[in-house]
Write a structure and sequence with these properties.
This is Sulfide:quinone oxidoreductase. The chain starts with a strand and ends with a strand. Helix 3 packs across helix 4 (about 100-110). Helix content is about 25%, strand content about 20%. The protein has three domains: about 5-135, Protein tyrosine phosphatase superfamily (Protein-Tyrosine Phosphatase, Chain A), CATH 3.90.190; about 150-255 and about 410-555, FAD/NAD(P)-binding domain, CATH 3.50.50; about 255-405, FAD/NAD(P)-binding domain (3-Layer(bba) Sandwich), CATH 3.50.50.60. It has about 550 residues and is an alpha/beta fold. The protein contains 15 helices and 28 strands. The longest helix has 19 residues, at about 455-470. It is globular, with a radius of gyration of 27 Å.
Length: about 550
């Protein structure tokens, strides 16, 4: 038997034989549903034969034959009722298991998240892309015929999405462009580190989405449920369908708070905070101001994460405050890093290590946060050093700044656009999808091996815009992305190590070394971060003004 588990209560399988029934019962199944009509193939047993063997094994049965490729809405409803009426776990079968998996998917529509349904069936080996619109539509066959259509559709209204929309508009204003995003507020997330240090007011990092959408660009305030790239369609929540000639995918990534046991329940209290959330960054500053003694933990999960330096930025700025208030001698600073290095580009590590020593911070590599007990103020880490057996350690804390694990959004991971790890699969130079020629991606969600930062998106937006316009005119890609990313590492109030680098860790400084040496802490980099970059973000990047971001042209060979 090739039994494929979908949930704890439902599994599906290709054709089952009477001789399989005893084994199914032995594996704990209590009911069997047959979704294959009798006589579909000459070598197939009849349902009566299977039923007799099932009853002899103590299994209940249900015959619900479905013609291949013709699962009706009422069939899915009947299947859902059967799952309620029959004792579980239930094993359903047809010729390959696809009809049974389809029936389950449609029966669960409206009660389970679409991405969860697609993920469960995908993990069992079944692709439900063909019925995704019905799943989104509550298990019903869509009847809509008046779907919207645009020259360019952009999924995501964050830094990457608005920037690329503005850059495309600057190049070809007559195009019809739509941004799909359900959010009301747009955030300048690089500013939250400064909020957590009491330097920025939180309100300065937020603006209404409507005020930022470029003039002439349509804003469809809806979440994306699924992609149908072969039909040039995006399916929205509610089963509305938006068609496109060209698609740009940049919804950012998912902060997976639930991946750490107990974390969600204690965030914002019990001394547990994170600068990765707008509402929690002020709590970071409250904790820093009020901590006079004890242990402060700063965690970093496995890569990839957005702004890989942010977890240690929180540590440096907090410790700097404790130095200035003469408290550091009574505070034990611990950096708990799931990786094995302080920073991925070695040229910047010496300057950072000087501050690690200055703040007497202990570096704990290969320590991945897996659980938090807020009331008892303890955190559990899995320690996984190379070539050593992993083990768990529990550490007490008085304050803990958490960087959550991060993944691609669920609707991306289960889509035809994703690679095996769940990220949008692109050519790392042109940012064009490796399979679908009319799809591009930028920002945190795509799989190019670059740092996931707003500075990277600032460089990527013109590249994607340039290449989309080239494609419209029938030409080959004419701009390339060199992997540029920037991480202003705030090592103390008033000084920053400005890390700028590209693919392979190559240094890509924006300024001459005599003006700003990024490998050492400088006041100039602090001024850039505090006073210059926010206006550049709001007034240039999101408006298609490509200051210091002109795309590098493809050279003929």
């Amino acid at each position: 038997m090739d039994i494929r588990k979908i949930t704890d209560e439902v599994s599906v399988a290709p054709q089952l034989l009477p001789g399989d029934m005893a084994a199914a019962a032995a594996q704990g199944f209590r009911s069997v549903i047959c979704n294959r009509p009798d006589g579909e193939a000459a070598d197939q047993p009849t349902f009566d034969e299977v039923e007799a063997a099932a009853q002899a094994a103590g299994l209940q049965t249900r015959y619900m034959p479905i013609v291949s490729g013709k699962v009706r809405d009422e069939d899915a409803e009947d299947f859902g009722r059967a799952l309620v009426e029959l004792p579980g776990p239930v094993l359903a079968y047809c010729r390959t298991g696809t009809r049974s998996a389809t029936l389950w998917s449609l029966s669960q529509a409206g009660t389970r998240d679409t991405a969860a349904i697609l993920a469960a069936t995908r993990d069992a080996g079944y692709d439900m892309a063909g019925v995704v619109r019905r799943i989104v539509n509550g298990g019903k066959t869509p009847t809509d015929t008046g779907d919207a259509k645009f020259d360019v559709v952009i999924v995501g209204g964050g830094a990457a999405g608005i920037a690329v929309a503005a850059s495309i508009r600057e190049r070809k204003r007559e195009l019809s462009i739509a941004i799909l995003d359900p959010a009301d507020i747009h955030y300048y997330q690089p500013g939250w580190t400064m909020v957590g240090a009491g330097i920025f007011d939180p309100a300065t990092t937020a603006r209404t989405m409507g005020s930022l959408i470029p003039q002439g660009v349509h804003w469809i305030k809806s979440a994306v449920a699924a992609f149908e790239p072969k039909d040039n369609a995006v399916v929205l929540d509610g089963c509305r369908v938006v068609k496109y000639d060209r698609l740009v995918v940049c919804p950012g990534l998912k902060l997976d708070w639930h991946a750490v046991d107990g974390l969600v329940e204690t965030l914002g209290k019990n001394g547990v905070t994170s600068n990765y959330r707008y509402d929690l960054a002020p709590y970071t500053w409250e904790l820093v101001r009020n901590l006079h003694e004890g242990r402060a933990l700063f965690t970093q999960p496995p890569m990839p994460i957005k702004c890989a330096g942010a977890p240690q930025k929180a540590m440096y700025l907090s410790a700097d405050h404790w130095v200035r208030s003469n408290r550091l001698k009574d505070i034990d600073v611990q950096f708990m890093n799931a990786g094995g290095v302080l920073f991925g580009v070695k040229d910047y590590v010496p300057a950072l290590m000087r501050y690690v020593r200055k703040y007497d911070a202990t570096l704990n590599f290969w320590n991945n946060l897996i659980a938090v007990d807020g009331p008892s103020k303890t955190a559990t880490f899995r320690v996984s050093e190379p070539e050593k057996e992993s083990h768990e350690v529990t550490v007490g804390f008085d304050m803990m700044h958490v960087c959550p694990p991060q993944t691609a959004p669920d609707f991306i991971r289960v889509s035809p656009l994703a690679d095996a790890a769940g990220w949008v699969d692109v050519d790392q130079s042109t940012l064009r999808h490796t399979e679908f020629d009319n799809i591009w991606s930028l920002g945190d969600v795509m799989n190019a091996p670059n740092a996931k930062t707003a500075a990277a998106a600032r460089m990527q937006a013109p590249v994607v815009a340039e290449n989309i316009v080239a494609d419209i005119y029938g030409g080959a890609p004419r701009a390339m992305y060199n992997g540029y990313g920037s991480c202003p590492l705030t090592v103390e109030r008033g000084k920053i190590v400005l890390a700028e680098f590209g693919y392979g860790g190559a240094l890509l400084p924006s300024f001459p070394k005599w003006l700003l040496d990024g490998t050492r802490p400088t006041r100039a980099a602090w001024i850039l971060k505090e006073q210059i970059l926010p206006p550049v973000y709001w007034k240039a990047m999101l408006r298609g003004k490509e200051w210091l971001a002109r795309p590098e042209k493809v050279t003929a060979r």
